[in-house]
Amino acid sequence: MHNTLPINTDSAPPLGVEWRVDDSLVPYEAAVAGMERRVAAIVAGRAPQMVWLLEHPPLYTAGTSARDEDLLAAGRFPVHRTGRGGQFTYHGPGQRVCYVMLDLKRRGQDVRRYVCDLEDWIIRALDRFNVKGERRGDRIGIWVARGGGREDKIAAIGVRIRRWVSFHGIAINVEPDLEHFSGIVPCGIGGENYGVTSLVDLGLPVTMSDLDVALKESFAEVFGECPAP
Fold first, then answer.
1. Cα separation values, 177 from 50, 61, 80, 119, 184, Å
2. What per-residue confidence (pLDDT) applies to 10?
3. Average pLDDT value for residue range 194-210
4. Do residues 90 and 183 make contact, with C-beta atoms less than 8 angstroms apart?
5. Pairing status of strand 95-101 against strand 150-162
6. Distance CA 80, CA 140 (A)
7. Cβ(187)–Cβ(87) under 8 Å?
8. Is-contact 47 170, C-beta < 8 A?
9. Distances 188 to 63, 92, 141, 162 between C-alpha atoms, Å
10. Nearest-angstrom CA–CA distance, 199 and 131
11. What letter does residue 156 receive in the DSSP assignment?
12. With contact defined as beta carbons under 8 Å apart, do 109 and 87 qualify?
């Protein structure tokens, strides 16, 4: 099941941006196939841009820079090789995955700016729960300082661009099983000072619906397109 929320702005083309929220776990292969179809339709001018919010069953994905030695438990969950940038990432229940299919020709055809916008989107959404998410110049994703030199990753980013339409996107930890991350070196970043956290792990009783509201509000601030009433 899903619900679709159109977004309308004066500057957007008539089709605007569609929001889709899936309430049940979406198999990874089905999500990739869905993204492929939508990206092709956006390129052809037959469908609106889309932000797709979902959760996956437990799995690992390997981006284009993934190193085999960073897969520590090869038989634990399915491993999907994917064309997005980045290294190994875990997806599973309790993690909000946001697949973002936007026409970057409308946004200056600037991939670096787009990635910065995704980071800003996450940071603004987390700020609504009084969580200070931070960028790190030497590490991908959004991080939370835990004190004593410890930093934990709360959100991952991995994108792919085809004919200036984006797909894949971001993943924010709401309440996943954090032990599942132990089967990989997340994004190739290990060491005793770096870990993984979630909103609930930080002591915040945030639901997936709470985060979705924050994501829609902050998306409007960053990308300039607001959910319709």
1. 28, 16, 19, 23, 14
2. 35
3. 97
4. yes
5. unpaired
6. 20
7. yes
8. no
9. 11, 19, 12, 25
10. 8
11. E
12. no
Biggest alpha carbon–alpha carbon distance for the chain: 52
Tokens encoding 117: 């916008």
Cα distance between residue 196 and residue 155, in whole Å: 9
pTM of the model: 0.90
Average per-residue pLDDT for the chain: 90
CB 154 within 8 A of CB 172: yes
Query: Is 187 a residue of the active site?
Result: yes
What does the pLDDT read at residue 189? 73
| pLDDT tens readout for residues 119-173 | 999 999 999 999 999 999 888 899 999 999 999 999 999 999 999 999 999 999 9
Helix, coil or strand: residue 24: coil
Cα atoms found within 13 Å of the Cα of residue 99, Cβ hemisphere only: 24
| Token pair recorded at residue 168 | 């894949």
Residue 1 has pLDDT above 80, yes or no: no
Of 98, 116, 187, 226, the active-site residue reads 187
Torsion sign, CA atoms 201, 202, 204, 210: negative
